[in-house]
Amino acid sequence: MIKLDNVSKKFATGVYGLSSVNLDIDKGEFVFLIGPTGSGKTTIFRLLTREMLPTEGNIMVNEMDVVNLPNSKIPHLRKNIGVIFQDLKLLFDRTISENIMLPLEVAGVKTEEAKNKVQEVLEQVGLKDHQDKFPIQLSGGELQRAAIARALVLSPDILLADEPTGNLDPATSWEIVNLLMEINKKGTTIVMATHNADIVKSLSRRVVELEKGKVAKDTKRKDKKEKEEVKEKEEVKEKDLKEEKEPKEEKEHKEEKKDKDEKGEEKE
Amino acid sequence: MNFFKQAGRNIRRSPYQAIAAVLIMMLTFLVVSFFTFILVGSSKIISYFESKPQVTAFFKNEAKQSDIDSLKEKLQATGEISSIKFVSKEEALKIYKEQNKDDPLLLDLVTADVLPSSFEISTNKIEDLSPVSDTLKKSSIVSDVVFQKDVVSTLASWTNAIRKIGVVLIVLLSLVSIFIMVTIIGIKISQRREDIEIMRLIGAGGWYIRWPFIFEGIFYGVVGALLGWAIASGVLVWATPFLESFLKGIPILPVPIVFYLALLGIELLLAVLLGAFSSFLAVLRYLK
């Protein structure tokens, strides 16, 4: 679903935002992207949505070659990826429902159909009572929900959430995470960048830790490694068992042969 | 439909810029309308004078009809004459009576004998007036030659000058309105840079973002053209009674409604082109 193959991004300042990152995310996965500020979490998101191009490496999203994607296809890529931006990026002169309607308008969905879809998503994120309010009239958690609703409204296969609990109190943060978990249960692949260690620890999901633009830890790899080790051990055990079995059989066979020989000699 | 809605929102959001854009467009189309009135009017006046007898030759009293007829044939043979009309003494008296019907004293004093018979001659081209007039002057039966060459040529040179000034002014104003519109739309694009970025990030294509600005430019053009046309036409309708008395006898007023509507149609078309072109320039410049 998402594949970063040896991806590096060098900024104009000469600083590397990412260096040789390899990342493989399967369909339906929920991945936490953690790491200190400046470790490259947002850079990965910006590369995935073709907001910027990598200096080297390949990026595949939903079988689209992001790096070599022609400019005319970028809107198509972006319609496939829902993004919850760190700064939300809601339009402050539009109501909540108008904000959520925007991706549908952009995608050319018919007004009636779009209105129904907006109602459906508003229901899902619990903002139905606030649909005619302007962003300035909502609380942080509600704004976050609005941003989630906008990212969800086109039913994208992938949802990128850039620190969606950044400025929220613990209770609201959990509400948002639970909402994301629910969305994930329906099959949407979710990549969530976060600093919230409590949430990451409490949920046993894959964690990719970035440090200075490199993948420092990836629990999937660890899982894989563990699985491989377990497999290896099992194989070794089987082998040992076999080996144990084989000498016994050989011994018995040899003894049988020896008995037969002795009996033959006696006959002679 | 959404493009119109967005354009409407853009206009409402910065009313002063919208007013500035509409005013400059209005000024351009006001000048276009006035100059159209002046040019069409003056060319009608010229063609009126050109179609009127341009040379009038008054005959001496002793002129015989046969001499007059041979002079007529001679003139017609040159091919320069579009019409030639003989006005007898009696007809001249009739015209005189008509012109002075309000003054019985003048009527009493004049009889047909006093008034000379004459030729009223029109030429195909204004340049042919001089040779025709020379031929007439040389004739022994002609006492006096009057021709309106001076009136027409003065009017023609004035019209020419007005046309040139009009074209220069309209071109200049159009350029000014294009630059002002590009600046205004540019400012609006800059103000909305963040919104545009957000739209791009959620998958909006280039034209989804550009169309509202183009419609906005067209809107300013159309509203400006409507206002400019309405003001100019209103002034002309209001001034029609004065102008009619000033241009006594020249049948160009009142202007038919079809003319106003045709002008409005042409101006609206120009406004759409001007508005769309200006915003397209702005979009190219500021929305790379």
Describe what you observe in this structure.
The complex is a heterodimer of chains A (268) and B (288). Chain A is of the alpha/beta class and 268 residues long. Chain A folds into 2 domains: 2-212, 3-Layer(aba) Sandwich (Rossmann fold); 220-268. In chain A, 47% of the residues lie in helices and 22% in strands. Chain A is built from 8 helices and 10 strands. Chain A has helices spanning 41-48, 74-80, 96-106, 111-125, 140-152, 170-185, 197-202, 219-267, and strands spanning 2-10, 16-25, 30-34, 56-61, 64-65, 81-84, 158-162, 189-194, 206-211, 214-218. In chain A, strand 1 and strand 2 form a beta hairpin. In chain A, helix 3 packs across helix 4. The radius of gyration of chain A is 28 Å and the shape is elongated. Chain B has helices at 2-13, 15-51, 65-77, 89-99, 104-109, 129-138, 149-191, 193-201, 206-246, 257-286; strands at 55-59, 81-87, 118-123, 142-147. Chain B is elongated. Chain B has a 4-stranded antiparallel sheet with strand order 2-3-1-4. The two termini of chain B are 24 Å apart. Chain B has 2 domains: 2-49 and 153-286, no CATH class; 54-147, Alpha-Beta Plaits, CATH 3.30.70.3040. In chain B, helix 2 (15-51) crosses helix 9 (206-246). Chain B is α+β, with helices and mostly antiparallel strands. The model of chain B has no long low-confidence stretch (mean pLDDT 82). Classes of the chains: A alpha/beta (268), B alpha+beta (288). Chain A binds chain B through residues 49, 51, 72, 75-79, 83, 85, 89-91, 93, 102-103, 105-107, 111, 150, 154, and chain B through 1-2, 9, 13, 195, 197-205, 208.
